[in-house]
Automatic annotation (TrEMBL):
Gene name of this polypeptide: birA
Location of the BPL/LPL catalytic domain: 64-257
The protein's name: Bifunctional ligase/repressor BirA
InterPro entries, A to Z: aa-tRNA-synth_II/BPL/LPL, Bifunct_BirA, Biotin_CoA_COase_ligase, BPL_C, BPL_LPL_catalytic, HTH_11, Transcriptional_repressor_C, WH-like_DNA-bd_sf
Domain of life, per lineage: Bacteria
Organism from which the protein derives: Peribacillus deserti
Signal peptide coordinates: none
Keyword entries, A-Z: ATP-binding, Biotin, DNA-binding, Ligase, Nucleotide-binding, Repressor, Transcription, Transcription regulation
Length: 321
């Protein structure tokens, strides 16, 4: 019922919807409509009521919910099914389960808080309330070796969403960190379910620090992490960031499926901070120093060492010197 009510407001595009109209759409009495409106108000929606005009939503709540994301979401597929949870160990786990049981492409799992947020290589991702912790289920028909390109694609969509919603200028550090003023605001973890050379699903896990204050970060990341609101100096709507991310992601994903990685690579390069710089790459097999000279068509980082030898870096932590 609530979903129908929010959809009716969405259709009205910020305008008024009369009580009578809402009663017809919802198939209930006007008194019942009023009760549902009161419920929305309790959840933080600011709803104006004017005699003879009806109701209008002036402001959606800062609180996250599946419905507030759906209200105003401009996608055909991404985020059309949302599994929202107040607190979870990790959205990745739920997304894997949903993918196993046949969830549609574009299904999104979101939590207000994660108690066991995962980074890459079994690292911890701190996921206090007021950030965005989400996992997107994809079912791309692509060869397995192309799956890591989706991490780079997601990074571009996040940068575009941050640019849409704030005045900040984010930059990407290969492969998956988004930095603002040199500090990490986002991490991306791409996991895959596959068999032989067939991808069943790709789960893109995204963590964005949105409204945390410095005091919300544990000591070990206070120097290296930041949030959008710290950088912008005011609270940022998580709902707007998620909606904008899903919109950009869908456009880029369709482009990627049609034309491959090339157009995504160009966009990614335009946001990259590490290219052309001297870097230290810590890989699982050792540490390499040299200049980051570019990425390949497959999204692999190219590092040229002092002897002029070029190394392909598939997975590493990068420090810019
Ligand atoms: P990563 O391995 O690149 O980054 C992890 C490292 O980043 C940690 O070791 C720590 O130094 C630092 N770090 C941890 N938490 C934060 C934070 N909140 N802000 C800035 N720096 C931090 C990046 O891994 C991948 C992160 C994916 C997180 C999403 S959230 C939704 C989904 N569910 C889940 O469990 N993980 C993903």
């Amino acid at each position: 019922m609530r979903k129908v009510l929010l959809e009716a407001f969405h259709q009205a595009n910020g305008g008024f919807v009369s009580g009578q109209n809402l009663a017809e759409i919802m198939g209930c009495s006007r008194t019942a409509v009023w009760k549902h409106i009161e419920e929305l108000r309790k959840d933080g929606y600011e709803i104006e009521a004017i005699r003879k005009k009806g109701y209008r939503i002036n402001k959606s709540p800062g609180k996250l919910s599946g419905n507030s994301i759906l209200l105003g979401l401009e996608t055909k597929m991404m985020g059309k099914h949302i599994s929202y949870h107040e607190s979870l160990p990790s959205t990745q786990k739920i997304a894997h389960k949903l993918a196993d049981s046949g969830a549609e492409e574009g299904t999104l799992v979101i939590a207000d808080e994660q108690t066991e947020g995962k980074g890459r290589l079994l690292r911890t991702w701190h996921s206090a309330k007021t950030g965005i912790w989400m996992s997107l289920v994809l079912r791309p028909k692509i060869p397995m070796h192309q799956a890591p390109q989706l991490t780079l694609l997601a990074a571009v969509a996040i940068v575009q969403a941050i640019e849409d919603t704030t005045s900040l200028l984010p930059a990407i550090k290969w492969p998956n960190d988004i930095l603002i003023n040199g500090k990490k605001v986002t991490g991306i973890l791409t996991e895959m379910q596959a068999e032989a050379d067939r991808i069943h699903s790709v789960i893109i896990g995204i963590g964005i620090n949105v409204n945390q204050g410095l005091e919300d970060f544990p000591d070990e990341i206070k120097e290296t992490a930041t949030s959008l609101s710290i950088e912008e100096g005011q609270p940022i709507s998580r709902t707007s960031i998620i909606q904008s991310f899903l919109k950009h992601f869908e456009i880029l994903y369709n482009l990627f499926l049609k034309e491959g990685f090339k157009p995504i690579k160009l966009l990614w390069e335009s946001y990259a901070v590490s290219l052309g710089k001297e870097i230290k790459a810590s890989t699982l097999t050792g540490v390499l120093y040299g200049k980051a000279i570019g990425i390949t068509e497959d999204g692999v980082l190219l590092l040229k060492d002092d002897e002029g030898e070029i190394h392909n870096i598939y997975s590493a932590d990068i420090e810019i010197s």
